[in-house]
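[Structure tokenization] protein backbone as discrete codes

[Encoding] learned vocabulary of local backbone shapes

[Begin record] amino acids and matching fold tokens:

___
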Amino acid sequence: MRTGAKLYTALIFIFLYAPIAVMLFFSFNSGSSTAVFEGFSLKWYAELFSDAQTLNAVKNTLILAVSSSAIATVVGTAAAFGIHHMKSRYLRQLTMSVTNVPMMNPDIITGISLMLLFVFVGGMMGLATKLNFFTMLIAHITFSVPYVILSVLPKLRQMDVSLPEAALDLGCTPMQSFFKVQLPAILPGVFSGMIMAFTLSLDDFVISYFTMGVDFMTLPVHIYDMTKKNVKPDMYALATLIFVVVLILLLLSNRESSKDERMQIKRLKAERRRRLSLHKNKK
């Protein structure tokens, strides 16, 4: 039974990661074939850094991803804080249901609806170009915020409720209590939400395709345009670099999560020792 489970797990991992391994391997191929490895070379990496159009698409994608993830992190953290402190359970459930809609909604529906909204508002304002960088930015913030909320809320629930109360008793204002006590406690969740928002923005194609203007093209849309003709092998090199960056971000996120878990365990042990000492003193 254990052997079968291990074999099944191995097959799943092979199915998931074999295409990535092939891409990594052939990004160092001296030829353009994806079937025959002609020799080790950094040719396609050199080609990549001389492709001005692709580099411009990468720059646009990074600008959009960094901007949208930063704004979504601030908005999502504030929203999670507000949801956590709602006194009405029904209002909290209703708000969470509305929050989950952008995640459950198909991307094509979200993209079309946002495009229609931007075109309508742009027409009312008499704008010549109704879709541009800012429409894409708003769209990316819209679908990123729910993921930040879902990353921050569990940390707020795990936080000791006496911490902000103690800060207020010691003379902190509610704002000082948030930045000096509560924010450090939920920082791993905020960091995880920011990374999630960044990777989602980096990867998005459907919503970007419907909300972009003619003067701002992201990398996924650029690659889609290339598939209509021929995808150059330097895309293997670019995909490899993106994979490495995302892997590093994932490792950093896991490191922060494990650090937070160790701190939680230390706090629980310290609290247990304190209670045991109080119990002994009473006896």
Remarks:
- Residues 226 and 232 are 8 Å apart (CA to CA).
- The mean pLDDT is 83.
- The first helix runs from residue 2 to 26.
